[in-house]
Amino acid sequence: MQTEVEAPSTEPLRVQAGVTVSGVRKAYGDVVALDGVDLRAAAGEVVAVVGPSGCGKSTLLSIVCGLDAADAGTVDAPEASLMPQRDGLLPWLSALDNAALALRVGGASKAAARAAAHSHFVRFGLEGFEKTRPAALSGGMRQRVAFLRTLLAGRPLLCLDEPFGALDALTRAQAQTWLAEALARDPRTVLLVTHDVEEAVLLADRIVLLSPRPARVVSVLEVALPRPRVRTDAAVVQLRERALTALGLQP
Amino acid sequence: MIAPLIVLALLCGAWELIVRAGVVNELLLPAPSDVARTLWEDRSILGPDLAVTSYEVVLGLAAALVVGVALAVAMHLVPAVEDALRPLVVGSQAVPIPVLAPLVVLLLGFGLAPKILIVALVCFFPIVVNVADGLRDTDPDARRVLASLHASRWQRLRLLEAPSALPSGFTGLKIAAAVAVIGAVLAEWAGSTSGLGHLVVTANAQLESARAFAATALLIFEAVVLYALFSALERRVVSWSPRTVS
Fold this sequence. Notes:
The structure holds 2 protein chains of 2 kinds.
Chain A: E1 19-28, E2 31-41, E3 46-50, H1 57-64, E4 72-76, E5 80-83, H2 95-99, H3 101-105, H4 110-118, H5 139-152, E6 157-161, H6 169-185, E7 189-194, H7 197-203, E8 206-210, E9 217-222, H8 234-246
Parallel strand pairs in A: 3-7, 3-8, 5-6, 6-7
Antiparallel strand pairs in A: 1-2, 1-4, 8-9
Chain B: H1 2-20, H2 32-41, H3 43-77, H4 79-94, H5 97-108, H6 112-136, H7 140-148, H8 153-190, H9 196-205, H10 209-237
């Protein structure tokens, strides 16, 4: 089992693919989670999916990742790796082994997987915490380890399910900055599910706004702003207001 | 460590007073001081019997661990095995050992084999149930991550389910350690020529109640030592579990 696998993300991915979701419907018993959702992400685009809690955003990601089947509609998406809402880190593994998990599952040897994961530790501010277990890491560090694990899966599409939902406001602001930087270095197609409109404006190329359950697309906003974006920037603030208005959360 | 000793001292003190006051017949209930003296004076009798019973308990526990874990994994991986065996596993626990033990002795003789079998039978239930539940109760987010990575069935078992099952597996093992001693005694009662259970029977027949109590004290001690050993092992092996972080 000593298969040597090249660390997928040491080289930028050249094969990228877009996502097309059309008319996806999903019900659990009588509860309709998704009621005809359309969504499109071009290769290398970051698309944020924003909607109220419990509107079926996570279900949408599960379907795009192939973990769940839609009742109706079609999904055309490349291989995806998922970063779940809570980090899903394995408590018995060190930060390094957690980050290297996708490579291990892909068949890399322990040493090769660790070496590949470790090459990212400095950039992600995790140096010195290689052997630390998740319980002893801060919330922000846990998310970085989980994101690194997702990135190292080497898939063209990243599905991030409220990646920073559990962080406090300050840590979240920092996390948004490193995520933007990481994606600038290593572009992928990204579906970012969030309930934080500001996060969507800061990170996404396009924002898809969903209604409360059953989820339908209320509106799609293009975010044609240069990066890096600053949350106090007038254009950012203005777009945030527009999104909130479209969601009916603002008069 | 101090608190249980204080409780033990208080209980023994009260017991001593009751016996000294002549409330109960000393043939029925010897004073703790008599039991302690017998422990020392009869050490050449008690020692070898303790070794025999310990041997039965350790081998029985080991057999239960191997068979129990194998069965739990089989039940976890194959739903048909789970459906077919779960009621039988539960039912096996309801079989009264005093009924079963003479039968086992009849079949397997007076040697070590029937003791190991009966100890294993008593112990394997908490191991099977706890390991099987531990394998099933995994973090749903970690499951989703592994599924999105297309982890194989074997990878899911090795990377997620087996480590997740360790804390509850240790719980099962600790419960098993406590009941293993009872299993060994019942097996010895059904037919044996040595062991602490055998000693209790002969001592009672000879109205040597202090000796029977001394043997019982050693049985209790053995269960406590096993439990402590497994707890220590648990703290080392599953140091990541919130339960063992202290």
